[in-house]
Amino acid sequence: MFDNYLIRADSLRNEVVDGTVVGFKMAVRIANYRGVFLSLHTGYFLEVDGVTYPREAQSFEINGKPPRTFEEIKSAVWEHWDFDDEAILHVACPGGLAPGEHTVRFQQCVIAAYGYLPTDKVWVETPPELGTGAGSDKTPNVVSYVLTLDEKQDV
Amino acid sequence: MKLGVSLYSYQQSQFFRELTLEDQIREVGEHLPYADGIEIVDEMSLRYPDPGEDFVSRWFMWMERYGTVPVTMDVSFDVLQFRDHVMSYDEVTERLERDLRLAKRLGFSNVRVLSTCPIEVLIAALPLAEELDLRLGKEVHQPMRLEGRQVGEIVEYVERSGTHHLGIVPDFGIFGFRPSEVLLAQYERRGASREASAASVELSAMLQAGTAPFALDDVSNQTAGNLRVAWKNFVSRGGCEAGLAKPFAALKAFAESRVIEPTEIDYVVVAEAIMQSNTSLETMRELAKHVISCHGKFNNMSPVPNSPGEFHDLAIDTAGAIAALREGGFEGYVNTEYEGQRYSQDRTRAEMMDEVEQVRRHQAMLRRLIGVTADAGAQ
């Protein structure tokens, strides 16, 4: 759903901390028609110009709180990511991205479902592999974006 | 029969921040003659799980201002919420009970639960529903059917217990008789062949007529989403649960008989034929007294040939559903539920569907079918 709009087109930025570029970030929306309890969100398949950035390199900023790792998000069992709200996906990548256009391949993994599934117990132990479409039933395909890095700092 | 709209219909307009919740309610109240019912998905329309007291006041102010009525609130349950274990039935019941209290707070009369909600959970939550005078309705969504255990166990419980607070919410997608043309068009943009679309329409007709080369077995006990995942696994890796093995093998053979060297997406397209419920209108008539409210599901309103200004969904028998409900004595709400917008969402915003116009066309069709005029008096 909303395939070409899950990342806000003008939101790709490098992230600078104390004068050092530590990574990049982008604004994202939920790939569903509803919000979910935040704990169900397990991360992104994210590939920029052919380089994959795993879950461990990602942190997620929502609900006015500082960015959290997906290990921390896992315990946000009573916090909700509402349908209307944009979140910021932060990606650790020392030096950040070069100026200009980048090809971003993207898939969100949210283990929300219509009730019980045969995979439930397995996903308690290990959430689905990112990019396989599991846990992404409303947008089962990986979506490609061409985004231009904006040199401004604020997303 | 009464008319309303599930605001689910405006999900795309909400996503793009083109319509606020108030705009959506105003559209129903001011631009849809005769309609006054409001249905929502709680996790789409609200700050969840607690929208706050200020919101609740605004909500009732909107209902008064636009002459609308909260009818049904749709709730979900995500069994991996706690992440360290799969939710037990008790925990699912607790979630449903919290949603019941929320629905009451917003003045709804009914709560719709997912088709996958276990009957044990419904029965456990029923005392609270009765206390709050809320009616619980289990959605019957394609490819589920009105016949079979999932509806049967509810009817049986209602008849045994005499409760007035449990029933079903039929989604008119169960009266679909072929894949929607907008769904097939999206698959073709993604690389499916026209032969696969034609095969899917052909097989749908065969399943409806009872001339298909296989029986659906356990297919209609699954949700469409879960079935699509199981089918993809079957095609790519082989293997599936026992009740799906026979229909899946026959379906694969059918696809290969109609499409030369089918690709994965061709298989997916042909399998859309088994997502049709092929349920009976006669059963709908018999079950009308158990209906809490209805989802007037549609995917695309296209012009009715030779009837200028009239529109229909060419893949769903809405006329048959309305007639069966009327003959069965149903007097509750049919709420428009537009879902076809997602089949244009691989495109740019400018090429996507206009939800407001689609819903207006569907409401015009419903008024025609239930016999009310646009200036709102029942004939």
TrEMBL record, chain A:
<keyword id="KW-0456">Lyase</keyword>
<dbReference type="InterPro" id="IPR045959">
    <property type="entry name" value="CGDB"/>
</dbReference>
<comment type="similarity">
    <text>Belongs to the C-glycoside deglycosidase beta subunit family.</text>
</comment>
<feature type="domain" description="C-glycoside deglycosidase beta subunit">
    <location>
        <begin position="2"/>
        <end position="114"/>
    </location>
</feature>
<protein>
    <recommendedName>
        <fullName>C-deglycosylation enzyme beta subunit</fullName>
    </recommendedName>
</protein>
<dbReference type="Pfam" id="PF19906">
    <property type="entry name" value="CGDB"/>
</dbReference>
<keyword id="KW-0119">Carbohydrate metabolism</keyword>
From TrEMBL, chain B:
<dbReference type="GO" id="GO:0016853">
    <property type="term" value="F:isomerase activity"/>
</dbReference>
<protein>
    <submittedName>
        <fullName>Sugar phosphate isomerase/epimerase</fullName>
    </submittedName>
</protein>
<keyword id="KW-0413">Isomerase</keyword>
